[in-house]
Amino acid sequence: MFRRRFLAGLGGVLAAMTMPRWTVASGQSDDDWPREVTDALGRRIGIAGPPTRIVPVFSSNTEIVAALGGTGRIVAIDGLTRYPPEVLDRPRIGNRIGFSPDIIARLGADLVILTPARHAAAQLLRPMSLAGIPVLVLEHPTLVRILDNIGLVGRAIGSEPEAQALTRAIEDELSALAELFASRPPKRVYFETGAAGRAGFRSVRPGTYTDDILRHAGGLNVFGDRTGFSQVSGEAVFRADPDHILVAGTEADVAALLARPHWNGIRAVAAGRVDAIPRGQVLIPGPRVVEGVRTVAHALHPDLVSTSSE
Predict the structure, then answer these.
(1) Nearest alpha-carbon partner for 148 in 63, 22, 306
(2) At 218, phi and psi to the nearest 5?
(3) C-alpha to C-alpha distances, 46 to 35, 37, 115, 159, 261, nearest whole angstrom
(4) Using an 8 Å Cβ cutoff, are 176 and 297 in contact?
(5) CB distance 163 to 153 below 8 Å
(6) Confidence check: pLDDT of 225 > 60
(7) Which DSSP string corresponds to the chain?
(8) Backbone φ and ψ of 71, nearest 5°
(9) pLDDT of 213 above 90
(10) pLDDT in tens, 263-289
(11) Distance from C-alpha of 136 to C-alpha of 43, rounded to nearest angstrom
(12) Domain check: are 156 and 257 in the same one?
């Protein structure tokens, strides 16, 4: 049953990925400026010419612009962005507390790309509109939408060929992995994304891009039937008794999990099937999610999948 559910879900996602997800407006060619794109809020955003001074807010949007060859056009980032290293010397326009429209305007930004989190949209949309700076709002709920957004950003910044090449490479990788797992049942996985000690633990929510990563990597979320669910108890993990445990973090996070009282009674822990997965590959909805898929796939199926560095 698990294998049928896994293959059915995977097939549907791959089918959706083969459909065109961004279009050129009628009468426009790839060289036509100004152009319009429609963002996640349904807003039609006019862009006068190829942006040269881009401010992406949040790591995911910075990574998308950089992956499309736009690193040199990024003039500022938010305070929590840590990748790629080439942009870390840029001015910071805010962090958890808030974002500064004044800094963005002083930098002469000609495009802001943001996600409606940490009040970014509420703080920046109106001031940027008054300043005449277009703002493209993206949402990244699923892996398919991440690929959509790569295409959308490519359209917005005039990097369509790069966007098409990148999405095609990601889709090819996912298709190749799907073929590897076609005849193998998925591993039942508890994927921990955070820990609050006795207050509980955070796991992957169903219907999210991290859940998609797990499925594409030949895994099955043991809490996948709990819609909108992320907080779990140690008792719930014991009852689920997963085949494998993944921890979004470092080997130190794995060591902390292994040291929890009585967790050696969980089958995956007793068998030594607990692995750390870099957070940037599975918790930032940008192009590195494909690295996350391969890293998770190697952890779950090392006999079938090598790491990207091997």
Answers:
(1) 22
(2) 80, 30
(3) 6, 7, 18, 16, 57
(4) no
(5) yes
(6) yes
(7) -HHHHHHHHHHHHHHHHTS----PPTT--TT-SSEEEE-TTS-EEEE-S--SSEEE-SHHHHHHHHHTT-GGGB--B-TT---SGGGTTSPB-B-SS-B-HHHHHHTT-SEEEE-S-TTHHHHHHHHHHHHT--EEE----SHHHHHHHHHHHHHHHT-HHHHHHHHHHHHHHHHHHHHHHTTSPPEEEEEEEEE-GGG-EEEPPTTSHHHHHHHHTTEEETTTTSTT--EE-HHHHHHH--SEEEEES-HHHHHHHHTSTTGGGSHHHHTT-EEEE-HHHHSS-STTHHHHHHHHHHHH-TTT---TT-
(8) -55, -45
(9) yes
(10) 999 999 999 999 999 999 999 999 999
(11) 9
(12) no
The two structure tokens encoding residue 83:
């990748």
| Measured distance CA(148)–CA(170) in Å, rounded | 12
**72 and 40 both lie in a single domain:** yes
Number of structural domains the chain divides into: 2
Average pLDDT, the chain: 89
Residue 22 lies in a domain: no
Same domain, 125 and 225: no
> What is the extent of the structural domain holding 252?
186-300
Rounded Cα gap, residues 287 and 308, in angstroms? 14
Number of residues that this document lists for the chain: 310
Residues 203 and 257: beta-carbon distance below 8 Å: no
Q: What is the pLDDT of residues 84-134, one digit of tens each?
A: 999 999 999 998 889 999 999 999 999 999 999 888 999 999 999 999 999
Whether residue 209 is found in the same domain as residue 106: no
Determine the pLDDT at residue 27.
34
Q: Residue 126: inside a domain, yes or no?
A: yes
Q: Do 235 and 112 fall into the same domain?
A: no
Amino acid sitting at position 290: V
